[in-house]
Amino acid sequence: MTKKRPPLHPDAPLHFSDHPRPVTRRQFIRQGLLSGGAMVTGPALLSLFMHPEEAQALISDDPTLTGPAGADCTLAGGPSAMVPFICFDLAGGANLAASNVLVGQKSNVDGQMAFLNATGYSRMGLPANRLPDSTLTFVDSTLGLKFHSQSALLAGIKSKFTNPNSGFIDGAVIPARSDNDTGNNPHNPLYGIAAMGMTGQVSTLIGSQNSDSGGNSLAPTLFMNPSARPTKVSQPSDVTGLVDTGNLTAVMSQADAVSVMETAARISIDKTSSIKPYPNSVTDFAAKNKALQEMVNCGYVKAASIAETFGDITQINPSTDQFIVGGTNSIFTTAEYNGDAEFRKTASVMKMVVSNFAGAGCITMGGYDYHTGDRTTGDARDLRAGKCIGACLQYAALKGSKLMIYVYSDGSVFSDGSLDMNAVTNGGVTVPGGKGVWTGDSSTTACSFFLVYDPLTKSTKITPAKGAADQSHHQIGGFTAAGAVDTSSTPGAGNVNQLVQMVWLNYMALNTGLKNADNSPMTFDSFMANAGGHGLGDATSQDSLTAFKAAV
């Protein structure tokens, strides 16, 4: 008799005899040998040299610091009217379909309830005695989007998102294949979100890895912008470092510190404005010389703006936000917040995004290549990911903010039908045992999903794209009855680049009044025209790929 191995801790690394030893950063992350810290982004200084004509005037009470006579720069653009956006990158190939988010065949009624056969669900870890059915057995609709009632991900979400009835919450699942165990899938949508005009008061984007995408998976090259590349922050103190005013506010009042910095800015502007450009022996030298002056001047103006806007550093520090930790009804207890870096990372990102200090963010969680021959290892990691997702939703509810959350992974896993009877318990939350063990990788069982929260009611805000009576858009696309992605069901079902386009389409549908660079109304066609077009068809086809409309 084979000796039963104990389940792995959520932070334990994964070792497989059929996988090569990891040699890249992404391989270390997916096997849990390297974790991802929270990340934030800021504009690159060299972008001022490359595009000096794109500098804009800083919003300030002092006109001498703005416009052509002053420093032509920006720091805090003010809160955005667009829906805040956070994506979760579960590195390694997590199971999301059926055992977590319910999936079915493509249907014009409700694809989630167009059930697979028993063999199809067994491949996704659900034995015959745990199958969802038309009587809503094993179906949980708390979040609008239907989950399996024994989903570890759902259990984690509900443990933190404790007031889902306070506003509108719903979502959609997108069956779609992607390559297993690789960061080369262009899953990450952040640059496209920023290209639509999403911004923050401190940073445009934030992420959780020191990579071009800010996550484990790649970003499509269509809208990549070097000035918005994520910069790594691994703990809350690094978030506060984004607006560090140094020692000046420690030795004088905030108002006096702002006055000192503004005086320095005026002196800088006065001196640099008297510099005459070098004779134009080099092409565009005068413009680059002007860009250099702007870079110097903006450093002083931005320092003054930081002191004025964030002189009280506690307003941006997640560790001092009692909605997050330290209060009577905080999202995290002090013990779990201090004891788990994933919670501190999530708190840092959600604080920045929901408060609109950043426009959009990505949270990478490693170790989701969990086909370890048991079920408990994967369920424990799904439970923790669910807690992080639920924390973001709860924080949005407490702050009265809208929020879109998108969850994806590189590939997925399958079960051979053998069962693990062990339950998983963590932090007072229990996930029942008796479900299929994860046996190996399988891109054919993959999907991604998103949730949308609005603090206002469903009747006044977000509605299904085809009307309240039509719930078919809870699932966009479908699986075959035997449990494989139906790659003909949507343009993105077999093409990750077009899957990301579907995410952009759905995000754009939530935001009205978007404008192109020429101030004309932005449509999905005009937005994608800047990237050379798209593969989602005409307006009728796009409507069939859209879950919701009009959050803004």
Structure commentary:
With 552 residues, this protein is α+β, with helices and mostly antiparallel strands. It folds into 2 domains: 25-41 and 79-125 and 138-242 and 316-419 and 432-481 and 491-549, no CATH class; 243-312. It has 15 helices and 18 strands. The chain has helices at residues 25-30, 47-50, 118-123, 152-160, 190-195, 236-241, 248-251, 254-273, 285-310, 334-339, 341-354, 376-399, 496-509, 524-529, 539-544, and strands spanning 39-41, 85-90, 139-143, 145-148, 168-175, 203-206, 230-232, 358-365, 403-409, 413-414, 419-420, 424-426, 429-431, 435-436, 440-441, 447-454, 463-464, 548-549. The strands form 7 sheets. It has a 6-stranded mixed sheet, with helices on both faces. A hairpin with a 2-residue loop joins β12 (424-426) and β13 (429-431). α8 (254-273) runs antiparallel to α9 (285-310) and α11 (341-354) packs parallel to α12 (376-399). The protein is globular, with a radius of gyration of 24 Å. The chain starts with 24 loop residues before the first helix and ends with a strand. The model is unreliable at 37-61, 66-70 and 466-471 (pLDDT under 50).
Structure summarized in a few sentences:
The protein is an alpha+beta fold.
Q: Briefly note the structural class of the backbone.
A: alpha+beta
Mind describing the biggest β-sheet? 6 strands, mixed
Radius of gyration: 24 Å
Poorly predicted tracts of residues: 37-61, 66-70, 466-471
Q: What distance separates the N and C termini? A: 60 Å
Query: How many strand units?
Result: 18
Strand order of the largest sheet: 5-16-9-2-8-6
Q: Which percent range describes the beta-strand content?
A: 5-15%
What is the mean pLDDT?
A: 81
Please tally the helical runs, counting DSSP H or I stretches of 4 or more residues. Answer: 15
Global geometry: globular
Q: Which percent bin holds the helix content?
A: 25-40%
Q: How many domains comprise the coordinates?
A: 2
